[in-house]
Every structure is written in C-alpha cells, then in structure tokens.
C-alpha cells in the first residue's frame, strides 16, 4: 500500500483518530485501492459496529463539512468535503462478516481495518480481483436490490472484468426485476455505461441478457441466446483491436469507412439486431469523423449542458436504444427521468436522422435543417454514419457546420424583430417571425448582405402579404 492509496489515512479528509474502533473501510474504495486505481475524487465507505451516525456528525462538525442523514432507520449518514465524500453505516447484522455477506459481488465484499492494516476477506474477493472476475455473493443479494444486476455490467466495463458464468446465469434469470427499480437509479447506471470507454459492448450484453427491455420496449426484439457475459462474442469480432490511423482524409485507399461497413455487415451476419449493430458502430463512426474533422471530435466529447454529464457522443449512443418514432422515444426518456435538455437533444436527433440520410438537400432545405437541429448536429452525424450513410455524402454539411460564420448553418440576422416592428409599425406576432425567417434565408442564398438590403426586402415581403 502506498501513501497515495485510499487505504492510507493520510489521504483522507479527516483524522483517523476520529474514527471509532472497530471501524472498517469497505466497498469501491477498498477494491480500487487493491487494484491500484487512482481516484481524483475520494468516495469512502465505512462500516461501524456502533455509533455510525454519531461518528459522522462528529467528523462533519470538526471539519465544518456537509452532513446528510441518508437513512435514519439503517443508521447511514454522509459527510461531504470539498474533494471527498465519506459514508458511515451501521453494520447490517451482528458483526462485520454478516455485513459483507449481504453485499453484491465478492470484489466489493472486502473490508479494511485502518487501525490495524488488516484486510478482512471472508468471500475470497481479493482472488477474484486478481483474476478480473465479477462473482455474486448470493442470488438473494441480487434479488434484494435488482439494480445490482445492471451494476455488474457497469463495473465490468469500468474495470475490464468478466462476469463469472454462474453469476451471469442468475442475472439473466432475475433480469425482469430491473423493471422494479426506480428510474433515477437505472439512469445513473446507464450514464456510467454510456460514458465509459468500454461501455458499448456491455450495454449490448445487457440488452442480450434481457436487462433493458423494460425501459426500451419499442426498440428491441427478444433477447439473443448467449451474450458477452463470460465468453468472446461480437466484441471480439468488432472491437478486438483499434482501427488504423485515418490516412489522407476521405479519399484514397481502403478507409475506416469501408472497415466500418465490413463490421456492420459482419454483425448482421452474426445475428445482431439493428439496435446492437448501430450501437456498436457509434464509436468507430465517431473515430472516422474525428480523424478528418478534429473539431467535430471535440464537440462530441462535450456535455449536453453545463449541469449534465451526458456527452454528445453519449446522446448518439442512447439514441440507438430508443424508438425511431420521436413521440415514443420521448415517452421512454420521460419514464427514465431524463432532463428536458437531454430529451430535446435525443428527439431532435431521431426526428432529423431520416432527412440527413435521405438525399442531397437544396440550400433552403439545408437552411431549415440546420435551424431545426442546432447543436445536436455532431451527434446526428455520428448516428447517420453508424446507420450506413457514407461520410462523403455528409462532408459538405459538416464543413458548413464547422464554419462559424456560414449563413446557412449559423445564420445571423441583419435586422432584428424590434427594428422591423419600429420601421414598419407592426405588431409583435407571427408576421414578424415569418419576415425574419425569409430575410435569413435570403441572406443564406446571397440575395442580401446589408441591413439596408434587408429592410428593402422586408418592405417588399410585407407589401405582398
């Protein structure tokens, strides 16, 4: 153990002296420390045999930290520091081992005594950690909190582990129970999977193993036989090695676009659904695009909103799980308690994808297309490529979007609605909006370029009405 490990009290935001004896660190912090995984933000969990809430209050008071009573009946409290969170819980059962045997997976059922430096590992979780195996403690523990079923896939993605075969069998049997879990908790686990670099194959595995049908009913056929749980499958065929560097833009010798097409065809031959085919293709499609348009790659990594963790690439992935009918997709997203910004982004992408795939658009069609999609465009382009639209067909629109002063993709008004109202003695209403739209299109078409020309055209338009 190094001094930078979460197991070392020197890294904690409070003194070990304030931690009553006996007290044990448990859960993810212990697991990650044993795996030598560093965390920028410390997330500590402690089990105490007595006085858990009292200890938390004392620590919060001493350091003027935030205090939250999470569960009075079960004696669980949280102390929130600037760069760390520490949860304190009363042991479930008469002793520590009873508490550990109620946890989800053996790798999360290891305790550490910070006073003695001793590891307590009654379920051989450390051996599973060393082998990269996610093994259940018991079927009942998974049944008691069905979110643990989906959590296995999330932790497999984060840690690069596999799910032990017997555990996987139980997860598949209990999969329908995930529908009983609160939407907010399911959405949080999905967010981890959508944002994890290796999350896609495990989302597909969760689909194949029957976990997500309750939440995305309209998009799925019955679950496949097999899956990604313990043995190689589509991930080995499609994602075993990174694609080679993109040489020379969109032209020249066989490109990543062609390789992506091969991957899509291969998965369809192997029996993949449309959903899993498109989802598998999202990240390779983003790579194809980013290697030609680096700025597009940067935009895909940005969050949808200042307070949201979902990136635009995550939006593209999530869109593949939803109904292709915007109204049904919105209902699914509302059911999962997604934010208004995320729902708007996703339904916009789904609504405009057919138009982007259909054919070459005229300039007016491009103008209204960009007005409709706005900042959703990067995610929409990835979806189109993942659905089989050649990059070459999308290149002109991408170049327009990445040109900030282009008047088709990013129109700026020559005159405002207020100026029109004052100049022509109009009332605020739809008429003003229609004139502004016509002026914007005229500027995009190169028919006007100055405020004076805009006013002159507005006068003509108003006379015609």
Written description of the protein model:
By secondary structure, this protein is α/β, with parallel strands linked by helices. The chain has four domains: 9-128, 2-Layer Sandwich (Beta Polymerase, domain 2); 132-217, Hydrophobic Seed Protein (Orthogonal Bundle), CATH 1.10.110.30; 232-406, no CATH class; 417-464, no CATH class. It has 22 helices and nine strands. The strands form three sheets. A five-stranded mixed β-sheet has the order 1-2-5-4-3, with helices on both faces. Strand 3 (66-71) and strand 4 (76-80) form a beta hairpin. Helix 14 (312-319) crosses helix 16 and helix 16 packs across helix 18 (377-386). The chain is elongated. The chain starts with 22 loop residues before the first strand and ends with a helix. The relative contact order is 0.06.
The strand count comes to 9
Tell me, briefly, the overall form. elongated
What is the domain total for the residues? Answer: 4
Beta-strand percentage range: 5-15%
Summarize the biggest pleated sheet.
5 strands, mixed
Overall pLDDT score = 87
pLDDT under 50 segments (min length 5)? 222-257, 261-271
Report the end-to-end length measured between terminal Cα atoms: 79 Å
Rg is: 27 Å
Helix fraction by DSSP (H/I, runs of at least 4): 40-55%
Q: Strand arrangement, largest sheet?
A: 1-2-5-4-3
Assembly context of the chains: single chain
Structural class: alpha/beta
* Count of discrete alpha- or pi-helical segments spanning 4 or more residues: 22
């Amino acid at each position: 153990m190094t001094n930078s490990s979460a197991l070392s009290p020197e890294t904690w935001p409070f003194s070990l002296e304030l931690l009553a004896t006996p007290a044990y660190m448990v859960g993810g912090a212990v697991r990650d420390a044993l795996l030598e995984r560093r965390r920028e933000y410390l997330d500590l969990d402690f089990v105490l045999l007595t006085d858990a809430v009292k200890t938390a209050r004392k620590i919060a008071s001493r350091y003027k930290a935030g205090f939250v009573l999470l569960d009075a009946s079960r004696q669980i409290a949280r102390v929130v520091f600037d760069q760390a969170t520490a949860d304190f819980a009363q042991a479930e059962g008469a002793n520590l081992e009873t508490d550990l045997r109620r946890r989800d997976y053996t790798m999360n059922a290891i305790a550490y005594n910070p006073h003695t430096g001793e590891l307590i590992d009654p379920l051989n979780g450390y051996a599973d950690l060393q082998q990269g195996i996610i093994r259940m403690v018991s079927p009942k523990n998974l049944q008691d909190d069905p979110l643990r079923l989906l959590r296995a896939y999330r932790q497999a993605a984060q840690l690069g582990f596999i799910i032990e075969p017997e555990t996987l069998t139980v997860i598949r049997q209990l999969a329908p129970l995930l529908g009983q879990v609160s939407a907010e908790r399911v959405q949080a686990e999905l967010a981890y999977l959508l944002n994890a670099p290796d999350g896609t194959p495990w989302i597909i595995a969760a689909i194949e193993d029957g976990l997500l049908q309750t939440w995305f009913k309209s998009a799925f056929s019955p679950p496949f036989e097999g899956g990604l749980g313990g043995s190689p499958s589509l991930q080995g065929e499609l994602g075993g090695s990174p694609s080679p560097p993109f040489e020379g833009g969109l032209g020249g010798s066989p490109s990543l676009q062609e390789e992506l097409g091969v991957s899509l065809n291969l998965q369809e031959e192997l029996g993949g659904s449309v959903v899993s085919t498109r989802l598998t293709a999202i990240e390779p499609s983003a790579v194809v695009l980013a290697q030609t348009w680096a700025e597009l790659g940067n935009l895909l990594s940005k969050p949808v909103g200042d307070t949201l963790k979902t990136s635009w690439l995550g939006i593209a992935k999530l869109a593949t799980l939803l109904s292709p009918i915007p109204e049904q997709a919105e209902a699914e997203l509302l059911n999962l308690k997604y934010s208004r910004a995320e729902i708007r982004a996703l339904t916009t992408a789904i609504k405009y994808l057919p138009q982007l795939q259909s054919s070459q658009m005229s300039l007016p069609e491009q103008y209204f297309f960009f007005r409709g999609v706005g900042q959703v465009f990067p995610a929409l382009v990835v979806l189109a490529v993942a659905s089989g639209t050649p990059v070459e067909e999308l290149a002109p629109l991408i170049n327009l979007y990445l040109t900030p002063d282009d008047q088709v993709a990013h129109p700026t008004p020559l005159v405002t609605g207020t100026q029109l109202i004052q100049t022509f003695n109009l009332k605020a209403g739809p008429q003003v909006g229609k004139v502004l739209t016509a002026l914007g299109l005229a500027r995009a078409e190169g028919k006007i370029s100055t405020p004076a020309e805009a006013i002159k055209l507005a006068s003509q338009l108003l006379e015609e009405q």
